[in-house]
Model the fold of this input.
Amino acid sequence: MGFFVRYDPWCRKCLASLDYFGGKTEKGLSVFECDQLADGTWRLRGEAWTNKAKTLHKSDGHWSLLHGTEFRKGADGEPVLSTTFKFKKKLEPTMDESVFRQVEGGEPPAFVHDNHCEPPPREQTYLEAQENMYGPDGDDDAMDDDVDDVISSGVDREDF
Done:
């Protein structure tokens, strides 16, 4: 058992994470590893965080401190918690892109899927992931073109 940080809400019903790259739900909840510093601050760490820190730190997502047990690595290398995790506190980013501080009060940012906990269509998944990581579609963003090429090609994740 340990502490982890989750970016974005999770479904209260299926407790599944969405692998945006593959467009599939994965059993359990993907999180980032962290260490407690002092006075309610937490430093995120690990390869999965290092790969996403610059873009996620600037985004407007929900950050949560969770307590649970990692039972495997997800498709994108993030630790995945079993479904017995507990929400502890809401977090907010600080000026240091790897440090977050606890926020008093608040409920877990959970929801229930409106599609009966099935993954969304593949194109929708890619577009959501692109916007989450790189902001709205723009003419000057090379990643937009790369993602559009993947969507239109029908290439499966395993082919990368």
Observations:
- Residues 93 and 100 are 4 Å apart (CA to CA).
